[in-house]
Amino acid sequence: MTMVLHSNPGSPYTRKVIVLAHELGLADRITLAPIQVWEAEAQIRAANPLGKIPALVTEDHGTLFDSPVICAYLIDLADDSEMLPTGAARWPVESLHALAQGATDAAISLRAEVMRGRDAEPDWYAERMKRTVASGVAEAARRLPEFKERMTVGAIAVACLLGYLDFRFPDFGWRDGNPELAAWFAAFSERPSMKATQPPG
Ligand SMILES: N[C@@H](CCC(=O)N[C@@H](CS)C(=O)NCC(=O)O)C(=O)O
Protein backbone atom coordinates (compact mmCIF):
# COMPACT_ATOMS: atom_id res chain seq x y z
CA MET A 1 0.00 0.00 0.00
CA THR A 2 1.50 3.34 -1.00
CA MET A 3 0.55 6.71 0.37
CA VAL A 4 0.93 10.24 -0.95
CA LEU A 5 2.05 13.08 1.31
CA HIS A 6 1.16 16.62 0.31
CA SER A 7 4.15 18.34 1.74
CA ASN A 8 6.89 20.92 1.55
CA PRO A 9 10.51 20.52 2.64
CA GLY A 10 10.40 23.84 4.54
CA SER A 11 7.47 22.78 6.71
CA PRO A 12 8.35 21.59 10.24
CA TYR A 13 5.13 19.57 10.46
CA THR A 14 5.97 17.84 7.18
CA ARG A 15 9.47 17.14 8.42
CA LYS A 16 8.15 15.56 11.60
CA VAL A 17 5.96 13.19 9.60
CA ILE A 18 8.77 12.21 7.21
CA VAL A 19 11.35 11.75 9.98
CA LEU A 20 8.83 9.53 11.77
CA ALA A 21 8.20 7.55 8.57
CA HIS A 22 11.97 6.99 8.22
CA GLU A 23 12.30 5.89 11.82
CA LEU A 24 9.35 3.51 11.46
CA GLY A 25 10.70 2.00 8.23
CA LEU A 26 7.73 3.34 6.25
CA ALA A 27 9.44 6.05 4.19
CA ASP A 28 9.57 4.00 1.02
CA ARG A 29 5.79 3.57 1.13
CA ILE A 30 5.21 7.31 1.00
CA THR A 31 5.41 9.32 -2.22
CA LEU A 32 6.05 13.00 -1.59
CA ALA A 33 3.85 15.45 -3.49
CA PRO A 34 5.56 18.81 -2.91
CA ILE A 35 3.29 21.83 -2.95
CA GLN A 36 3.67 25.57 -2.34
CA VAL A 37 0.68 26.03 -0.05
CA TRP A 38 0.50 29.79 -0.37
CA GLU A 39 0.50 29.70 -4.18
CA ALA A 40 -1.49 26.53 -4.92
CA GLU A 41 -4.34 27.16 -2.53
CA ALA A 42 -7.09 25.46 -4.58
CA GLN A 43 -4.92 22.35 -4.98
CA ILE A 44 -4.16 21.93 -1.28
CA ARG A 45 -7.71 22.84 -0.26
CA ALA A 46 -9.02 20.05 -2.50
CA ALA A 47 -6.92 17.62 -0.47
CA ASN A 48 -7.39 19.28 2.92
CA PRO A 49 -10.28 21.69 3.49
CA LEU A 50 -8.10 23.50 6.03
CA GLY A 51 -5.65 24.36 3.23
CA LYS A 52 -2.65 23.06 5.14
CA ILE A 53 0.18 20.62 4.72
CA PRO A 54 0.96 17.93 5.63
CA ALA A 55 -1.97 15.88 4.34
CA LEU A 56 -1.56 12.15 3.81
CA VAL A 57 -3.62 10.35 1.17
CA THR A 58 -4.21 6.79 2.35
CA GLU A 59 -5.92 3.90 0.63
CA ASP A 60 -8.10 2.93 3.55
CA HIS A 61 -8.88 6.16 5.42
CA GLY A 62 -9.02 8.89 2.77
CA THR A 63 -6.87 11.97 3.33
CA LEU A 64 -5.61 12.44 6.85
CA PHE A 65 -4.63 15.71 8.53
CA ASP A 66 -3.25 17.23 10.66
CA SER A 67 0.26 16.16 11.56
CA PRO A 68 -0.48 14.56 14.99
CA VAL A 69 -3.22 12.47 13.35
CA ILE A 70 -0.87 11.46 10.52
CA CYS A 71 1.78 10.52 13.11
CA ALA A 72 -0.71 8.41 15.06
CA TYR A 73 -1.79 6.67 11.85
CA LEU A 74 1.79 5.83 10.83
CA ILE A 75 2.67 4.55 14.30
CA ASP A 76 -0.44 2.37 14.22
CA LEU A 77 0.45 1.10 10.76
CA ALA A 78 3.96 0.17 11.88
CA ASP A 79 2.59 -1.26 15.13
CA ASP A 80 5.47 0.41 16.99
CA SER A 81 4.95 0.51 20.74
CA GLU A 82 8.17 2.46 21.45
CA MET A 83 7.33 5.47 19.31
CA LEU A 84 4.05 6.00 21.19
CA PRO A 85 3.74 3.65 24.16
CA THR A 86 0.39 2.51 25.48
CA GLY A 87 -0.87 2.84 29.04
CA ALA A 88 0.64 5.28 31.50
CA ALA A 89 3.83 5.72 29.45
CA ARG A 90 1.78 7.21 26.62
CA TRP A 91 0.94 10.55 28.25
CA PRO A 92 4.43 12.02 28.71
CA VAL A 93 5.05 11.33 25.00
CA GLU A 94 1.71 12.82 23.93
CA SER A 95 2.32 15.82 26.13
CA LEU A 96 5.86 16.36 24.76
CA HIS A 97 4.46 16.13 21.24
CA ALA A 98 1.79 18.72 22.12
CA LEU A 99 4.43 20.99 23.68
CA ALA A 100 6.56 20.90 20.52
CA GLN A 101 3.48 21.28 18.35
CA GLY A 102 2.32 24.39 20.22
CA ALA A 103 5.76 26.01 20.09
CA THR A 104 5.93 25.20 16.38
CA ASP A 105 2.52 26.82 15.86
CA ALA A 106 3.83 29.95 17.60
CA ALA A 107 6.96 29.97 15.40
CA ILE A 108 4.82 29.55 12.29
CA SER A 109 2.69 32.51 13.28
CA LEU A 110 5.89 34.57 13.63
CA ARG A 111 6.90 33.41 10.15
CA ALA A 112 3.53 34.63 8.85
CA GLU A 113 4.38 38.08 10.26
CA VAL A 114 7.61 38.03 8.23
CA MET A 115 5.76 36.94 5.08
CA ARG A 116 3.22 39.71 5.54
CA GLY A 117 6.01 42.25 6.03
CA ARG A 118 4.77 43.06 9.51
CA ASP A 119 7.76 41.83 11.46
CA ALA A 120 9.39 45.29 11.47
CA GLU A 121 6.65 46.49 13.81
CA PRO A 122 6.31 43.71 16.33
CA ASP A 123 2.95 43.84 18.02
CA TRP A 124 1.67 42.38 21.27
CA TYR A 125 0.68 39.13 19.58
CA ALA A 126 4.08 38.55 17.96
CA GLU A 127 5.77 39.31 21.28
CA ARG A 128 3.52 36.80 22.98
CA MET A 129 4.29 34.15 20.34
CA LYS A 130 8.03 34.72 20.86
CA ARG A 131 7.54 34.11 24.55
CA THR A 132 5.57 30.95 23.70
CA VAL A 133 8.43 29.64 21.54
CA ALA A 134 10.98 30.47 24.25
CA SER A 135 8.98 28.88 27.07
CA GLY A 136 8.20 25.84 24.91
CA VAL A 137 11.91 25.34 24.25
CA ALA A 138 12.73 25.88 27.95
CA GLU A 139 10.16 23.26 28.95
CA ALA A 140 11.53 20.80 26.37
CA ALA A 141 15.00 21.42 27.88
CA ARG A 142 13.64 20.75 31.36
CA ARG A 143 12.08 17.50 30.17
CA LEU A 144 15.18 16.34 28.29
CA PRO A 145 15.88 13.42 30.71
CA GLU A 146 12.49 11.97 29.64
CA PHE A 147 13.38 11.70 25.99
CA LYS A 148 17.11 11.97 25.44
CA GLU A 149 17.61 8.22 25.36
CA ARG A 150 14.24 7.34 23.83
CA MET A 151 13.09 7.58 20.23
CA THR A 152 9.48 8.73 20.45
CA VAL A 153 7.19 10.89 18.35
CA GLY A 154 7.59 13.56 21.04
CA ALA A 155 11.37 13.60 20.65
CA ILE A 156 10.99 13.85 16.87
CA ALA A 157 8.57 16.76 17.26
CA VAL A 158 11.04 18.61 19.50
CA ALA A 159 13.88 18.04 17.00
CA CYS A 160 11.75 19.36 14.13
CA LEU A 161 10.78 22.44 16.15
CA LEU A 162 14.45 23.21 16.85
CA GLY A 163 15.39 22.54 13.22
CA TYR A 164 12.68 24.96 12.11
CA LEU A 165 13.95 27.67 14.46
CA ASP A 166 17.45 27.26 13.00
CA PHE A 167 16.00 27.41 9.48
CA ARG A 168 13.71 30.44 9.80
CA PHE A 169 14.92 32.22 12.94
CA PRO A 170 18.67 31.61 13.19
CA ASP A 171 19.02 34.59 15.55
CA PHE A 172 16.35 33.42 17.98
CA GLY A 173 19.07 32.10 20.29
CA TRP A 174 17.23 29.03 21.56
CA ARG A 175 20.58 27.44 22.51
CA ASP A 176 21.26 30.22 25.03
CA GLY A 177 20.77 28.70 28.46
CA ASN A 178 19.91 25.30 26.98
CA PRO A 179 23.31 23.67 26.32
CA GLU A 180 22.15 20.12 27.04
CA LEU A 181 19.20 20.42 24.67
CA ALA A 182 21.58 21.88 22.07
CA ALA A 183 23.94 18.90 22.49
CA TRP A 184 21.02 16.46 22.18
CA PHE A 185 19.80 18.23 19.03
CA ALA A 186 23.28 18.15 17.49
CA ALA A 187 23.49 14.38 18.02
CA PHE A 188 19.89 13.78 16.91
CA SER A 189 20.51 15.79 13.74
CA GLU A 190 23.11 13.19 12.69
CA ARG A 191 20.39 10.55 12.28
CA PRO A 192 19.80 9.56 8.64
CA SER A 193 16.10 10.51 9.05
CA MET A 194 17.06 14.07 9.97
CA LYS A 195 19.77 14.35 7.33
CA ALA A 196 17.31 13.18 4.65
CA THR A 197 14.82 15.90 5.62
CA GLN A 198 16.93 19.00 6.05
CA PRO A 199 15.08 22.18 5.10
CA PRO A 200 16.21 23.72 1.79
CA GLY A 201 19.55 25.56 1.95
N1 LIG B 1 -1.82 21.86 12.87
C1 LIG B 1 -1.31 21.61 11.54
C2 LIG B 1 -0.48 22.81 11.09
C3 LIG B 1 -0.03 22.68 9.63
C4 LIG B 1 0.40 24.03 9.05
O1 LIG B 1 0.14 25.12 9.60
N2 LIG B 1 1.11 23.95 7.91
C5 LIG B 1 1.49 25.16 7.23
C6 LIG B 1 2.80 24.96 6.48
S1 LIG B 1 4.17 24.74 7.60
C7 LIG B 1 0.43 25.47 6.19
O2 LIG B 1 0.09 24.60 5.41
N3 LIG B 1 -0.08 26.72 6.16
C8 LIG B 1 -1.07 27.14 5.25
C9 LIG B 1 -2.25 27.77 5.93
O3 LIG B 1 -2.23 27.88 7.16
O4 LIG B 1 -3.18 28.18 5.24
C10 LIG B 1 -0.50 20.31 11.53
O5 LIG B 1 0.04 19.97 12.57
O6 LIG B 1 -0.45 19.64 10.50
Question: What is the number of domains?
Answer: 2
**Distance separating the two termini:** 32 Å
CATH class of the largest domain: Mainly Alpha
The share of residues in helices is 55-70%
List bound small molecules. Answer: glutathione
CATH fold descriptor of the largest domain:
Glutathione S-transferase Yfyf (Class Pi), Chain A, domain 2
Task: Enumerate how many helices there are, as a single number.
Answer: 9
Furnish the topology, listing elements before pairings.
Elements: E1 3-7, H1 12-24, E2 30-34, H2 41-47, E3 55-57, E4 63-64, H3 67-78, H4 90-115, H5 124-142, H6 144-147, H7 153-168, H8 179-188, H9 192-195
Parallel strand pairs: 1-2
Antiparallel strand pairs: 1-3, 3-4
Helix pairs in contact: 1-3, 1-7, 4-5, 4-7
The structure holds glutathione.
Defining key terms:
single chain, 201 residues, alpha+beta, Glutaredoxin, 2 domains, four-stranded mixed β-sheet, 55% helix, binds glutathione
What would you say this structure looks like, in words?
With about 200 residues, this protein is of the alpha+beta class. It has 2 domains: about 5-80, 3-Layer(aba) Sandwich (Glutaredoxin); about 85-190, Glutathione S-transferase Yfyf (Class Pi), Chain A, domain 2 (Up-down Bundle). Helix content is about 55%, strand content about 5%. It has 9 helices and 4 strands; from the N terminus they run E-H-E-H-E-E-H-H-H-H-H-H-H. The chain has a 4-stranded mixed β-sheet. The longest helix has 26 residues, at about 90-115. The radius of gyration is 17 Å and the shape is globular. The structure holds glutathione (GSH).
